[in-house]
Amino acid sequence: MGVLFDYFRAGTDDEAVAVHDWPAGPACPPEGTEPKDSVELKGIDPHVMMGTLEALLTGHRYEDITDRPGHARVLWINDEGEQAVFALADEFAAALAAAGDEEIRAVPGPWSRTEEFWGDADPAELAEILGDLRDLAVRAVRQEQHLYCWMSL
Predict the structure, then answer these.
(1) What superkingdom does the record give (predicted)?
(2) Residue 71 included in any domain
(3) Which residues of the chain have pLDDT under 70?
């Protein structure tokens, strides 16, 4: 089955943490609750893979990105480590939202060749995913919200 990662937008850390017990993620809330605007990215983790993506988008060193205190910050994790909610850095959301179509087409090739994808990523699929993720970041930035990640094993 793999690890599920759903990226979503929310106004505050508390609002983001509230999805921690939604069994099917931020797009499938309990009855009477509004779903979160989200993108499902199975197997694409918020720390390493999104750090690599940000490095490719910005030209900044991966180490500088992942060393930032706000990079893939854990907001909540269950005792077994099987579910978690992470906050993504606002710098990542801003870089993603600012990416033009040319960058969105250029990044999937090098991103697909990183070792985290084990040589098994299709650049065309990553381009589609990246476009969806960029659109989510644009909506978050416009609404003065932040990006988060819900993870479930």
Answers:
(1) Bacteria
(2) yes
(3) 1
